[in-house]
Amino acid sequence: MEKQIKEKNELWEWTKALLIAFAIAAIIRYFLFTPIAVDGQSMMPTLEDGDRMIVNKIGYKIGEPKRFDIVVFHAPEKKNYIKRVIGLPGDTLEYKDDQLYINGEPIDEPYLDAYKSKITEGTLTEDFTLKDIDVNLDVIPEGYVFVMGDNRRYSKDSRIIGVVDQKEIIGNTSLIFWPFSDIKIVK
């Protein structure tokens, strides 16, 4: 009899431990961090198709996106996109002769150097202004960001889908955890 009670208590303790572990894992995944797989080549060479990353979901609940952050957001096609923040609220934006201008100032994009060095014809990024994206857009509106993929010739980004509402941003990411041989922090 005493042995049965002891076995029931041990079973109950294991059950409680497993339930607590599952609850903690669910809270972490839902509120704090979640994995995501890169789907496509729009962020090459920074991110490869199939890279697995950790998305920090709490960063923008207490702060704002920063220029050049890599973010994951809900896109209009009911998919999640991963892109780089280029323009912030209040910014004017222009690309001319493969040079980014924000508020009239030229801005370096060192993460594009690997692609730019391989281009033999044309530019990596076609010329555009915010007015080319939306005739009513002089500056990026409050609460929105302008995002682009690093593989500018093959990226469906703000040049096509428009500016992204910050409420649609799931979080930012910089840690590749799979494939194991490619574990790194990207900038």
Automatic annotation (TrEMBL):
Q: How does it sit in the membrane?
A: Single-pass type II membrane protein
Keywords annotated in UniProt: Cell membrane, Hydrolase, Membrane, Protease, Transmembrane, Transmembrane helix
Q: Mind telling me which GO cellular component terms the entry cites?
A: plasma membrane
Q: Which Gene3D superfamilies match?
A: Umud Fragment, subunit A (2.10.109.10)
**EC number(s) per UniProt?**
3.4.21.89
Q: Which residues form the active site?
A: 42, 83
Quickly give the catalysed reaction. Cleavage of hydrophobic, N-terminal signal or leader sequences from secreted and periplasmic proteins
**Range of residues in the leader sequence:** none
| A Gene Ontology biological process term | signal peptide processing
GO molecular function terms listed in the Swiss-Prot or TrEMBL record: serine-type endopeptidase activity; signal peptidase activity
InterPro entries reported for this sequence: LexA/Signal_pep-like_sf, Pept_S26A_signal_pept_1, Pept_S26A_signal_pept_1_CS, Pept_S26A_signal_pept_1_Lys-AS, Pept_S26A_signal_pept_1_Ser-AS, Peptidase_S26
Q: Where is the Peptidase S26 domain?
A: 11-178
Name its cellular compartments: Cell membrane; Membrane
Q: Which residues cross the membrane?
A: 17-38
Q: Main EC class of this protein?
A: hydrolase
Give the protein family: Belongs to the peptidase S26 family.
PANTHER family xref list: SIGNAL PEPTIDASE I (PTHR43390:SF8)
The protein's name: Signal peptidase I
Q: Which organism is it from?
A: Lysinibacillus xylanilyticus
